[in-house]
Amino acid sequence: MTPHTVEKTPVTLLGLGAMGSALARTWLAAGHPLTVWNRTPARAGALADEGARTADSPAAAVAAGTLVVVCLLDDASVGEVLADADLSGKDVVNLTTSTPDQARDRATWASERGARYLDGGIMAIPPMIGVPETGGYVLYSGPRDLFDHYRDTLAVPTGATYAGEDPGFAALQDVALLSAMYGMFAGTTHAFALIRREDLDPAAFAGLLTGWLTAMAPAAHGIAAELTADEAPEEDVSSLAMQVAGTPTFLDTARQQGVSAELLAPYFELMRRGLTERNEAKNPKGLVDLLLR
Ligand code: FVH
After folding, report:
1. Centroid of ligand 1 to alpha carbon of 97 (angstroms)
2. CA 118, CA 94: separation in Å to the nearest integer?
3. What is the pLDDT of residues 60-119, one digit of tens each?
4. I want to staple 9 with a disulfide (CB 3.0 to 4.6 A). Which of 83, 112, 153, 263 is the partner?
5. Spatial contact of 115 and 87, defined as CB atoms under 8 Å apart
6. One domain, residues 177 and 161
7. Hey, which of 19, 95, 178 would you mutate to test ligand 1's pocket, going by the most ligand atoms within 8 Å of its Cβ?
8. Mapping DSSP to helix (H, G, I), strand (E, B) and coil, where does residue 18 land?
9. Atom of ligand 1 at shortest distance to CA of 72?
10. Which of 108, 133, 165 is the last residue of a domain?
């Protein structure tokens, strides 16, 4: 009896930075034929030893298969790298972080070159790739049938989540999620600065910090509930009026600790505007619309 073997989809991968190299290893480990190209060829050496085929040029890499995954620094490098490649009949999956408009333009650009296109936003850092329990995933947007066709292959490195037909939706949600992350990093930076000169153990404080941020994260569901409700529910637990009244405590503490309030002040100003301009005294979540221009 002949053993039944399932052919794995060949993958071409352009870009072997920290993320591209991590992606590459998972496809190799899963048995996918892999062709790689990187601007600095030395970065492909270890992968070649692990079984990847290396191409001398982006055009040669693209010619090696139908599924072409791109993971480069930015949208400009995608344009440069693929400028001379024949994309007709190819399926391009671009995992490079982009703006929504860049993603939409790139979808049009690919279509004009005869390629189908999915845009991806990676919600993982390289150590999370190939480790499903970390909860990483990639948001994909573009044609649903194209996503479904490659879903199993795309899900090898990390989870694959469909984000809609609009090619800009993956990038938009990617940037939105990363923006929230930077807000968290800003708050964390300020918090460590406050304790920096004191006889407090940063590692112990980090434990307090992660516990508190985890406890507060579900507040996002409250904001979503308000944004989708016909009538804004009244917030009587942590009213905006109470929070604005408390801001001098935070600013005075920063001053006393010799810490710049530059990261905190813009959000405090938004809360103040929410109170004075929109009279959102009982509704701390009405701040979202104040940002819309
Ligand atoms: N690493 C991370 O934590 C984040 C997680 C979320 C997603 N991002 C995005 O993934 C894209 C790639 O990021 P990366 O971590 O692989 O970045 P680098 O290690 O800096 O590698 C950059 C690769 O891009 C190549 N490259 C840059 N400019 C050009 C160019 N003009 N022409 C050709 N290739 C270019 C670079 O090549 P080389 O320097 O090795 O020659 C690397 O292959 C990115 O969009 C993140 O936002 C990662």
Report:
1. 9
2. 6
3. 999 999 999 999 999 999 999 999 999 999 999 999 999 999 999 999 999 999 999 999
4. 153
5. yes
6. no
7. 19
8. helix
9. 24
10. 165
pLDDT digits (tens, 9 = 90+) for 134-159: 999 999 999 999 999 999 999 999 99
Same domain, 129 and 193: no
From ligand 1's centre to the CA of 40, what distance in Å? 12
User: Burial, 34: exposed, middle or buried (Cβ in 10 Å; 0-12, 13-18, 19+)?
Assistant: buried
Statement to judge: residues 33 and 147 lie in one domain = yes
Is 2 part of any domain?
Answer: no
Ligand 1: residue whose CA is nearest its atom 5: 125
Q: What's the structural domain count of the chain?
A: 2
Q: Is 114 within the bounds of a domain? A: yes
- Cβ–ligand 1 contact at 69 (below 6 Å): no
The reply to whether 29 and 89 lie within a common domain is yes
User: How many whole angstroms from 18 Cα to the centroid of ligand 1?
Assistant: 7
Q: How confident is the model at residue 240 (pLDDT cuts 50, 70, 90)?
A: confident
Per-residue pLDDT, averaged over 268-283, amounts to 82
Nearest-CA residue for ligand 1 atom 30 is 77
